[in-house]
Amino acid sequence: MYGSGNQPIIVLKEGTERSKDKEAQFNNIAAAKAVADTIRSTLGPKGMDKMLVDTIGDVVVTNDGVTILKEIDVQHPAAKMVVEVAKTQDDECGDGTTTAVVLAGELLKQSESLIDSNVHPTVITNGFKLASIKAIELLKEISVKTDDKIIKRVAITALTGKSVGGEDEHLSDLVIKAAKAVMDEGKVNVDNIKIEKKVGGVIKDTYMVEGIVIDKERVHPRMPKKVENAKIALLACPMEIKKTEMDAQISITDPASMAAFLAEEEATLKKMVDTIKAAGANVVLCQKGVDDLAQHYMAKQGIFGARRLKQTDLEALAKATGGKIIGNISEVTAKDLGNAKLVEERSIGTEEMTFITGCVNPKAVSLVLRGGTEHVMDEVERAIHDAIRVVGITIEDGKVVAGAGAPEIELALRISEYASSVGGREQLAIEAFAKALEIIPWTISENAGIDSIDTIIKLKTAHEKKGKDGRYYGLDLDTGEAVDMLKKNVVEPLRVKTQAITSATEVANMILRIDDVIASRRAAPMNPMGDPSMGGPGMGGMGGMM
Ligand code: ADP
Ligand code: MG
Predict the structure, then answer these.
(1) How many CB atoms lie within 10 A of CB 236?
(2) Would residue 319 count as lying in a domain?
């Protein structure tokens, strides 16, 4: 940059890296594509899993796009933007994350050749925007109304491809039961479904409990195992004598004052238990510790007690039982207590858990997951979690589309027709958008070891030749043929597709609009994946330009 006197004006700090115009665009596109390439092999039911090992050696085995992207450290600012798409998709729908990212990558790939032939990025982004609006319209047009049978298929589609040991039938029933149980005014409140995992048994042993299950046993063997008509004190404070703040030493010299000191401690603990008992509680669920002596007094009074609950458990219990979380035992009264028909310790495998059932608020359920190993159960948990979300939005919206590439092919065909009606330079971008949609069936096919070119041709032919039903034809992975996916029961919620297309388009456009990357020295923006410690500034520096 030069001022009037040809004197260079230094705007940027020394060491700032800058790339402009096509160079910047191609760099960003390459980074975004690298992210999409990382997860594309997981797309579809025949997609592969990834094993992720973090810096301390913890292993995650997953097929879930957003999980993979959350685990790996992405450093390039444009790559980070793509990772954000996966997170948005996950927040909004709980599914379709791989689809959204793969589509974003492909939109950018398609725009590369347009940029090369000097189509201005603004024209491309306009075209993409028009095409995505059209896509959403068309998706609504080809969506179908749901019923119970379809909801079940949605659950199964969401579970297939995840390593759930062939138990998708059983798990989908549980998922639907849980989603329906937590419905409130047309909304499925996923937060009210609690998932507890216990290693052991097989996935088929997974079951649902109407109420809350916590992974704690009662603290004392002489406490009752079972309390009916439970009045529950939810304690956020310990049932222990407060330890002195500083490491103070109390020196006691004669046995008499020793005895007095202990007696006083005893009395304090007894008073705590008495206060709780007087309020009418027969169950104490405590977030902190419970002193041995307090345990003993509770057992004597027939009170069930568990300690060291997670805060989230305590909060869930407060919601479910209508109890208040108590911070100070001396203030506890009858109306602070939660209510449940039954509090019971039950054995799961070789361990004990506490079941709080028949709660005041029946809209709280728990799923107790069983499975051979920690890793298996983690993946089952993710799968179930996603399936609950997907079933939830299906129940809420009441609309689904066929899966297996059917909607993408239908949109590709109709959007490319639409392109010619728009004309002008935007037409090229709209055509590129249509072409990009084909990446979904292409990749599902590729991941199943089926020839992708064949697949696209078969699907397009079916969509063009089969009249109105043609729109539901997707790829049958067993035969490699085009098949009516409504009949084959491969369906997905409409919202998963609309959201995937919307966010993929948004991020592609956002990246395409950047023509200048100014990165402070610490960031190394030309390397798509890398050390997180070098992250931050690159992204921060870009903020103002988007
Ligand atoms: P995402 O993270 O995008 O949800 P998935 O790995 O779950 O990725 O794959 C979703 C894609 O797989 C969707 O296009 C869906 O229609 C397709 N799909 C799901 N089940 C089947 C099936 N049985 N046959 C063919 N395609 C399927
Ligand atoms: Mg999925």
Answers:
(1) 17
(2) yes
Residues 6+ apart with CB under 8 A from 8: 1, 2
Structural domain containing residue 48 = 18-145+402-514
- Which residue from 68, 160, 490, 503 has its CB within 8 A of the most atoms of ligand 1, so it is best to mutate? 490
- Alpha-carbon distance 30 to 99, whole Å? 18
Give me the catalytic one of 168, 336, 378, 386.
386
Distance of CA 50 to the CA centre of its chain: 17
pLDDT digits (tens, 9 = 90+) for 225-243: 999 999 999 999 999 887 6
Taking CA 480 as the corner, what is the angle to CA 450 and CA 69, rounded to the nearest 5 degrees? 50
Q: Residue 338 contacts by C-beta under 8 Å, 6 or more apart in sequence? A: 230, 231, 232, 233, 234, 317, 318, 320, 321, 322, 323, 324, 359, 360
Same domain assignment for residues 355 and 430: no
35 and 108 housed in the same domain:
yes
Could you confirm whether 97 is annotated as catalytic?
yes
pLDDT score for 2: 53
Give the distance from CA 479 to its chain's centroid. Answer: 32
Considering all CA atoms of the chain, what is the largest pairwise distance in Å, rounded to the nearest integer? 100
Residues 416 and 434: beta-carbon distance below 8 Å: yes
In this prediction the pTM is 0.74
Say what the pLDDT of residue 363 is. Answer: 82
Residue among 69, 51, 99, 65 at smallest CA distance from 444: 99
Q: Please check whether residues 295 and 434 belong to one and the same domain.
A: no
Indicate the Cα dihedral angle 145, 150, 152, 156, nearest 10°. -110
Residues lying with their CB under 5 A of ligand 2, a single-atom ion: 95
Q: What six digits make up the tokens of 274?
A: 């008495």
Among residues 39, 37, 46, 36, the alpha carbon closest in space to that of 405 is found at: 46
